[in-house]
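General statements about sequence and structure are easier to judge against a single worked case. No coordinates are needed to read the tokens, only the vocabulary itself. The sequence in question and its structure tokens are set out directly beneath this paragraph.
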Amino acid sequence: MNYEAFSDYIRRFNAEDPGTFDTYLAPNVKVQNGHLRYEGIQGMKDHYARIWKSMREILSPQRFVSDGDTMAVELHTHFEVLKSTDDTPFGQVYAGEMFDYEGVVMYRLEGGKIADIKVSYLDFVKTGLDGKKTSLGIVH
């Protein structure tokens, strides 16, 4: 996957297009995000349906490298809570809170599609309703 295709993946993801996963993921994709693990395109869709129903998530790649079989992306992800709920991968959240992830994501490709995703953390910060920022470490 080249940078142009990856940029399209990010653009469509940021537009909350679940069809992005059908286009760019291998059918049995494996995802490891801290202790959170799930598999398959449907697993990815189910995970992001939980996030997108109450939050806006924007991926902002900072650096991209690829050797054709592997990609590494330094990534900043901003979450804005739009609706209070307790059904999120982060637990209970309140409208107006924000979360910011900084880390490196490794992608393994098979046949031009993403077959494995590993998320590593540099920081994960919650901005509370009072504006106070708190580093949460690994959220999952």
